[in-house]
Amino acid sequence: MTDPAPVKQITLIGVGLIGGSFVLDLKRLGLVEKVVGIDLSRENLDRALERNVIDAAYTDINAESVGGADIVIIATPVSTMSAICEAVKPFLGADTLITDVGSTKQSAVAAFQNHLTEFLPNCIAAHPIAGSDRHGALAAQFGLYQDKKLIITPHGRERSDGLERIEALWQAVGARTYRMSAAEHDAIFAAVSHMPHLLAFAFVHEMFDHPDGQTYLQFAASGFRDFTRIASSHPAIWTDICLANKNSLLALLGGLQTQLNTLRGMLETDNKDGLYQYFDEARQTRDDWQKGQ
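Above: the chain sequence. Below: its structure as tokens.
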């Protein structure tokens, strides 16, 4: 891999774990000269300045915060993509690249197509597969993307040099890059990311709603902690993601209900052999997946 040329200015809209970690690594590698952060929270911007995640801070999208950018990274909740695209449009240069880091790509591509039509060749839809239940500028960290996957979902009208530049920057921070359609991306990540979050939220809610739930939680240990860790994720972010990818999730919920009915049937009939086989198949599937990581 050839090292990409340094970027003079990146404007990061939404200064948190995902975008913040990306620009931290780019700064460490000398691949960006200046990072401008835009965020609604002045306090979050102050933390980002203190930690050198960004070099200048703004609470508004305007000519000063966006006008000099070579690359604009949209790292806000997926429901804000359309509004952000409309807001940045008057300040974009003819060659400014616009990219995102959202976890639903059909909605991102649609926002680019509908609101940045004349800049569409400069728009690159991307999704880094990394993160945690932490958020905000204080969550930004070095090395978050080392050996992690980065998905680009082309819409078909990208400048090849622009797509390759964004891809090269992600590769420079350690990511392994892939390309696929936005529809394929959304179906995959509904299954392996969005649905697990729904399940974690649902089971914690089962404890919240159960009359003896607080007593149960007093005795919860590592199994409950590991299964429900992602229920600590930010509710605003996951509300947006689930609604943006609702069709894929609704299809998966139907399949999950079938699985739960199968388990219910085996428990009601004391089907020991059936339960053993069911658990063993699931164990083997997960073990095989784990070995390939």
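The mean pLDDT is 94.
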